[in-house]
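Example 3.
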Amino acid sequence: MAASGSTDLSTTPGGHAGGKAYYVSTPIYYVNDAPHLGHAYTTVAGDVLTRWHRQRGEKVWYLTGTDEHGQKVMRTAQTNGVTPKEWADRLVETAWKPLWEHLEIANDDFIRTTQERHTHRVQEFVQDLYDKGEIYKGSYEGPYCVGCEEFKLPGDLIDGTGEYEGQKLCPIHGRPVEMLSEDNYFFRMSAYTERLLEFYAANPDFIQPASARNEVLKFVQQGLQDLSISRSTFDWGIKLPWDPAHVLYVWVDALLNYATAVGYGADQAKFDATFPADVHLVGKDILRFHAVIWPAMLMAAGLPLPGKVFAHGWLLVGGEKMSKSKLTGISPHQLTDHFGVDAYRYYFMRAIPFGQDGSFSWEDFTARYTSELANDFGNLASRVAAMVGKYFDGTLPAATADGPAEEALHAALANAVKSADSKVEQLDFQGALDDVFGFVKLVNGYLTEQEPWKVAKDTSEEGQARLATILYTAAESLRGLAVLLNPVMPATAEKLWASLGAEAHLGALPAQRVQDAGTWGQLPAGATVTKGEILFPRLEEKKDS
RNA sequence: GGGGCGGUAGCUCAGCCGGUUAGAGCAAGGGACUCAUAAUCCCUCGGUCGUGGGUUCGAGUCCCACCCGCCCUACCA
């Protein structure tokens, strides 16, 4: 997949004068099914984060991909009468990649766990651990459902009633499970309990938010058990090099994507310049794999540990986690068809604190779209461009009469930039957008107070200078907003950039440094301002649901 | 069973180590304005802070019990 432009490792072979890339990952998604809102939520967040960092001029690497091994994929493929690989190919090409393109995700790479660059390196990795004595052969005993042909987790089982009173039943088949054992290879994870605890203590920001950190700490403090890392009851997976009768446990396989995708064992220069990840974005459900198993694996291999594992919350509908089985499933396309891609990206970043569960609804989306995007922001761009067109024939005039009101806006923009920047750094997207839209509100208020439409009737030199100053101030404010909103709403920000005639003087929008966005007076007088299309048209009608 | 999180205006949420009349945004009502996407700006309305006790001079804010929602985890083998 094409890189987004600013990241170019080829220019600095070996040396990397620019230092290590800011490396962000999403989980690799299980191709068992098509992507849903939750996947898109994580991926959009990572995209906003990495676009922001790119606009700070940093070298960035944003990785996503798909997890294609495991029994569920195999079974789904069988049900559909195709091989697992064919099934994965189909979903990746017709569902996953198209959705990321649709949502304007600028990932630098897309890894699939069935690719050779992954499977071969994974085999080398586990062979290395095996040679080091980190992996041993043992046997696993657990409840097994004959109907499912797989081991169940004790927590998945349900209590039997009636003729099965006192027994544990498979939740799918409703029949008693039996205890079976199979030979497995185990990773000596128990040996890493103390080292992990020390690591967490030394790196208090490693797991965020705090609620997630607490859960992991409590879990690890109970002491870790060795991890079964192989299966021999099915074969859709990566074979253990020393015992091909076993395939690697899908999670060990999956976690290693973060290393294999950036050159582990294949391209040392790229690996050194990228690994480890600065931020692993994960959902709460897979926190433990990333905050416990993955670091333990890296410790065993002697590799550096990631900077941060950030567990975001669930999207809730009516207080419940979204799921198709509960008929609350809404596809990303249903939302983007109605609201547009940029509004979609904006909405989830703005409405829900990253790291917490958040309620989402069609009504809330509609309300925010109308109030924040159309009325506050879109209309601001519209009224400013209209007045520059009406009073100055579309040529941006110079500000020559700055007063307290203007200076207040200069300072407000600088503050918004500074504050938003630090909040994005902490993955507080909601807070950052709060800062940006607080500034939007100030600019609207500024126009209402200065009443340029009244000043325009004053044809004296002072009056015209005043009018010019007001409109320049408003337009320059929009220039700052275009830069700040580009990582979140790239298509819209680009429209605004074009409307301001900024590119001719300042260059391409993505090249604007976010840390300079608050520097006043960048948009030059003489720029050609055009009204352009409405950024956020009013929504036609409320869709019933 | 154990642990965690949450229950604050119609809606979504802020309220740090307890301290004057509990805040914001949206929605609703009124006013101002007309450059603009019938948009903007100002004002107003609106809460027994899940329930019941307790500690304290004073509790949304600490303690106990309970109710409701969600999450993690265990087990009676």
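Chain A is about 45% helix and 15% strand. The mean pLDDT of chain A is 87.
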